[in-house]
């Protein structure tokens, strides 16, 4: 993997979770999920993954390669932290929703859980479609003072209540391609 450009590295405060640690944990979650999906369904075409754009793209791309099932992916787009926001502006669905969820085993996947509004919103919409069951999976869960709106079924890492980017997570749509999960220098967030 190439070294990230200086224009990004200069903005990094410190690495919170290295790409190697992320990769090892994604492998663990992937294997656990694969076992659970095996147990769930005799009919592999009944499994639908619902990744939440855009932050989940890197996580889900790595995760699905641990799932050998014949499954569908239905992307959903939700925005809570538009542009330079570092506090939630309220989760809003953008564009269309995945279809053909009735009677399916649905797994909603996101990069990070903060207030939990995003995951709770998508879960409630999925439930309206009458799935057989719904599970939720996040790579990161922020340790915050208030309770989150939802308790995910699978969590990669509990992290401090800091604004983080990399491995799919952004600030103003930048830094998603950083391999590590990092905090940014204050100067980079002006
Ligand atoms: C981020 C992140 C989660 C959500 C978590 O999305 O990707 O989907 O916020 O926050 P919550 O638990 O407080 O709802 P964002 O709105 O930044 O969109 P993005 O994925 O396109 O970056």
The domain tally reads 1
Name the helicity range. 10-25%
- Per CATH, what is the topology? Rossmann fold
Rounded radius of gyration (Å): 17 Å
* Overall residue-averaged pLDDT value: 92
Helix and strand sequence: HEHEHEEEEHEEEE
What is the CATH first-level class name? Alpha Beta
Report low-confidence residues grouped into runs of 5 or more.
none
Bound molecules: 1-O-pyrophosphono-5-O-phosphono-alpha-D-ribofuranose
User: Percent of residues in beta strands?
Assistant: 25-35%
Secondary structure layout:
Blueprint: H1 6-9, E1 12-17, H2 19-40, E2 47-53, H3 57-63, E3 72-73, E4 76-79, E5 92-94, E6 105-113, H4 117-128, E7 133-142, E8 154-159, E9 164-165, E10 181-184
Parallel strand pairs: 2-3, 2-4, 2-6, 6-7, 7-8
Antiparallel strand pairs: 1-10, 4-5, 9-10
The structure holds 1-O-pyrophosphono-5-O-phosphono-alpha-D-ribofuranose.
Q: How would you explain this protein's 3D organization?
A:
- Helix content is 24%, strand content 28%.
- The protein contains four helices and ten strands, in the order αβαβαββββαββββ.
- The strands form two sheets. Strands 2, 3, 4, 5, 6, 7 and 8 form a seven-stranded mixed β-sheet that branches.
- 1-O-pyrophosphono-5-O-phosphono-alpha-D-ribofuranose binds at residues 52-55, 78-81, 88, 91, 110-118, 170.
Structure in a nutshell:
The chain contains 4 helices and 10 strands.
Which key terms come to mind for this protein?
binds 1-O-pyrophosphono-5-O-phosphono-alpha-D-ribofuranose; 190 residues; 4 helices; 28% strand; alpha/beta; 3-stranded antiparallel sheet; Rossmann fold
């Amino acid at each position: 993997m190439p070294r990230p450009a200086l224009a990004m590295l200069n903005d990094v405060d410190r690495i919170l979770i290295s790409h190697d640690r992320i990769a090892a944990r994604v492998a663990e979650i992937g294997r656990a999920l694969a076992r659970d999906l095996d147990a769930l369904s005799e009919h592999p075409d009944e499994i639908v993954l619902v990744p939440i754009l855009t932050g989940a793209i890197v996580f889900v791309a790595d995760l699905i390669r641990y799932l050998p099932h014949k499954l569908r992916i239905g992307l959903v787009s939700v925005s809570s932290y538009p542009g330079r926001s570092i506090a939630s502006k309220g989760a809003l669905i953008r564009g269309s929703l995945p279809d053909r969820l009735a009677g399916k085993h649905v797994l909603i996947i996101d990069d990070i859980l903060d207030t939990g509004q995003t995951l709770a919103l998508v879960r409630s919409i999925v439930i309206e479609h009458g799935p057989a069951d719904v599970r939720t999976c996040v790579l990161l869960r922020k340790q915050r003072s208030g309770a989150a709106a939802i308790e995910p079924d699978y969590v990669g890492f509990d992290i401090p209540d800091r604004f983080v980017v990399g491995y799919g997570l952004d600030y103003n749509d930048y830094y998603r391609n950083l391999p590590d999960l990092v905090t940014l220098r204050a100067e980079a967030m002006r």
